[in-house]
Amino acid sequence: MAERATIENRTFEEIAIGESASLEKAITREDIELYAVVSGDANPTHLDEEFAAKSPFKGVVAHGMLTAGLISNLLGNKLPGAGTIYLGQDLRFHRPVRAGDVVTVTVTAKEKRPEKRIVVFDCRCTNQRGEVVLTGTAEVIAPREKVRQPAPSLPEVTVRRHEKYERLIERTRGIPPIPCAVAHPCEKSALEGALLAAERRIIVPILVAPIAKLRRIAEEAGRSLEGFEIVDVPHSHAAAAKAVELVRAGKAQLLMKGSLHTDELMAEVVARETGLRTERRISHVFIMDVPTYPDPLFITDAAINIFPDLETKRDIVQNAIDLHIGLGLGEPKVAILSAVETVTPKIPGTIEAAALCKMAERGQITGGLLDGPLALDNAISVEAAEMKGIRSAVAGRAQILVVPDLEAGNMLAKNLSFLAGADAAGVVLGARVPIILTSRADNVRTRLASAAVAALYAHARMTGKPAAE
Prior knowledge:
Number of helices: 14
Structural class: alpha/beta
Strand content: 15-25%
Distance between the termini: 46 Å
Largest sheet: 11 strands, mixed
């Protein structure tokens, strides 16, 4: 076990004019992101490569006060150290600091004021090339009492990134925006999601809603509807029917749920004479961006089919496989989940899992590698699978999780969202076109990801090949 570090300060009496201390810190992208989170400073100059490339710095740079914070680090930890009270600082920034730069910070005592134990320090920060990036002075009250004790342990903090979604959204740059009928976007977040996807050139929205209500929502959101096609309808039910009609007429290749209830939209989708049915059973897929898992994690079906039978599960599995391939993610590893990894008649889902795997062997399900039944731990953890003696290409590495019923899937997806910090984009498959199924609680990133997934899949179906990286 490593010995715990010790901190020792310098009292006012011990500090000599000209005394100095230094520290060296390699600045990482995670440092910049953490500072943005703590400070709330989300200036895209520090976070968005595309935006920052157009700035005078020609790339992402660290917040100036992140570098300045290293001075506080040095004063609080080394000179004077524990018990120091920061009174003020006067700083000048000379050069930007970027991720990968190694900053050396030096403070030097230049003045002492005994009446209040004040010490003034010259401060200087340089990069690995010896270039000055920051200079200034700091004024502190030095400690009166000597301190020598073990250093307090700091909590471990990591940045939760969503690179999987960003890669999917980025991939839409390689395809034209897809016409999308948006059913009743009469709530701020629903309208914002559609317009933002339009701004990113993911979709071309056709807004189907009561026009007076839509304009009022847009005004409240500070959004302009100029340039967008609007189809005026009297209410949400009419919006659902008209949006489906636009798809049937070939005017839209995507359908997006706005602020109406899911059942209201899906009733029009599954209508036998006027809906969007195909020979395939309609199902839902959550595309989860789980920070602790290396791949996008598909969970199906957690929103449409409550207690699916074997034939329905076959379509659920095939829909998810086709989506995975259509997004350019390759042949997926599909885990058929149950509570246990052995087949037992006491748990009917295990028998259906085994049957689905046999159906894949006989060509009734194509395009993916299936294994099941698998308990959740055996599906996503190599170590758990090895402990149980399960060896397959899927166990521990699953990319699609097929749940036994809607209740299990819904609870699994929400557990990942609320306990593991995952985001959950959603799309409905098996209809004539992909359906973007968003929730009022979805954040901007999730709404964009849902639109990107649907657009990429629609493009793949229309062209016969996934979008290029």
